[in-house]
Specification:
With 152 residues, the protein is an alpha+beta fold. The protein has helices at 16-26, 33-41, 86-100, 115-123; strands at 7-10, 46-53, 56-66, 69-77, 105-111, 127-136, 141-149. Strands 1-2-3-4-5-7-6 form a seven-stranded mixed beta sheet. The longest helix is centred in the middle third of the chain and has 15 residues, at 86-100. The mean pLDDT is 96. The protein binds coenzyme A. Coenzyme A binds next to strand 4, helix 3 and helix 4.
């Protein structure tokens, strides 16, 4: 892995155009502009980070803090920046925040066919705790529920 010198920082509303451009490429059913704005303005549980190379947004993460758990809602890295440690750096930032806030675990859903993301999470010590049947649309597909436990 070639770890690039990206910076991980809190997402600002001015980052959203770049984030949405990556989202369109990364997913078959991308979040809409309304969904992104709702995370920013209507959801007090939501927090988000961007990875930047210079001024360029190259990746992002959205999560919710619910009680003593984080739920990872969305993560993507721009295709030409993948496999360079940026996704891992985004998850590590979330874990650092979780440690500071005494979070016990992180959960997420991932498409059952998304083998690259499943490998990614596996490397980061997420493990399968369940399946949500027909969770996804476009195309219809089951979700695996993965969990990461913070060290005691
Ligand atoms: C999943 C994703 C965020 C990973 O980001 P990334 O920056 O490429 O990942 P990293 O470079 O930090 O990878 C860390 C490790 O994860 C594993 N990994 C990452 N991508 C992988 C792939 N395509 N195939 C197999 N393993 C992979 C590897 O073990 C890798 O370490 P290595 O490169 O030293 O072998 C990125 O592939 C992506 O944006 N995918 C499209 C959107 C998506 O599917 N998001 C997840 C929705 S649940």
């Amino acid at each position: 892995m070639n770890v690039v010198s990206c910076q991980i920082m809190k997402m600002e509303i001015t980052d959203l155009d770049d984030v949405m451009a990556i989202e369109q490429i990364a997913f078959s059913a991308p979040w809409t502009k309304e969904m992104f704005y709702s995370e920013f303005f209507d959801n007090s549980l939501s927090f988000s980070f961007v990875a930047k190379e210079g001024d360029d947004v190259v990746g992002y993460l959205f999560a919710w803090e619910v009680s003593e758990e984080f739920h990872l809602m969305n993560i993507a890295v721009a295709p030409k920046w993948q496999r360079q440690g940026i996704g891992e750096a985004l998850i590590k930032k979330m874990c650092d925040v979780g440690t500071d806030r005494s979070i016990k675990q992180i959960q997420l859903e991932v498409r059952a066919s998304n083998t690259s993301a499943i490998s990614f999470y596996g490397k980061l010590r997420f493990y399968k705790v369940g399946i949500r049947k027909n969770y996804y649309r476009s195309p219809h597909e089951d979700a695996l529920i993965l969990q990461y436990d913070f060290p005691l």
